[in-house]
Design a protein that fits this description.
By secondary structure, this protein is of the alpha/beta class. It has seven helices and seven strands. The protein is about 30% helix and about 20% strand. Bound molecules: S-adenosylmethionine.
Length: about 200
């Protein structure tokens, strides 16, 4: 469901450069002092807020292209006091080319938009061109975590994975939540509450 435009959230992004970064400076100590974990399509940030709080040993980049949503996430992270997360309030496609091979420790794709129409398949964040970029920017042994409620996107993603060099570590059609190592997302919460099966795939470079 589309989030309504909220001026305060858009302003929050512009007024809080300490959390919401407009330009990626990969030489900044934030990106060099610790291993860096990406989440693409973070939404309002429930997942990254919990993951980053529980893993101070990493720095996190939450990528969310809708500015209102990025603003809501930024406020949540600032209020929670997380110092190890930055929000990139733009389309993820804008940054892949400038990230060097092997730069990223792991990548999370949670409940990304399914784009059900065939003519929109290139927009799916698991289309082959995206998977190839993830593979390139991940370090050797780095993992890509994918979760979705959407059956069509799940099947499509498996077909696209088969075209890559990724090793499939696990593929669960009905993923029972791993509460010790995983964190619930806003969409996951919504779909689990109505009994929808959640699919999860873990890949390794
Ligand atoms: C269906 S929501 C899921 C949000 C959250 N991950 C969750 O599980 O609750 C997908 C989010 O991905 C964002 N998104 C989609 N494509 C993106 C892209 N290319 N770059 C950055 N964000 C993107 C959308 O704006 C949306 O907020």
């Amino acid at each position: 469901m589309r989030t309504k435009y909220k001026q305060w959230a858009v302003d929050y992004v512009d007024e809080h450069p300490e959390i919401a970064i407009q330009k990626l400076d990969l030489k900044d100590p934030f990106f060099t002092e610790k291993d860096v974990v990406f989440e693409v399509g973070s939404g309002k940030g429930d997942f990254i807020a919990a993951l980053s709080l529980n893993h101070p040993e990493y720095n996190f980049l939450a990528i969310e292209r809708v500015k209102t949503v990025a603003g809501m996430m930024s406020k949540k992270l600032v209020e929670q006091g997380n110092k190890n997360v930055k929000v990139f309030p733009w389309n993820a496609e804008l940054i892949f080319d400038e990230i060097k091979e092997g730069f990223v420790y792991s990548i999370y794709l949670n409940f990304v938009d399914p784009w059900p129409k065939k003519r929109h398949e290139k927009r799916r964040l698991t289309f082959i061109t995206f998977l190839e970029q993830y593979y390139r920017i991940l370090r050797k042994g780095g993992r890509l975590y994918f979760k979705s409620d959407n059956d069509g996107l799940y099947e499509f993603t498996k077909e696209e994975i088969a075209k890559t060099k990724f090793k499939v570590i696990s593929d669960e059609e009905n993923y029972k939540f791993d509460s010790e190592n995983d964190y619930i997302t806003e969409y996951e919460n919504k779909f689990r509450s109505i009994g929808k099966s959640i699919h999860r795939i873990i890949l390794e470079k």
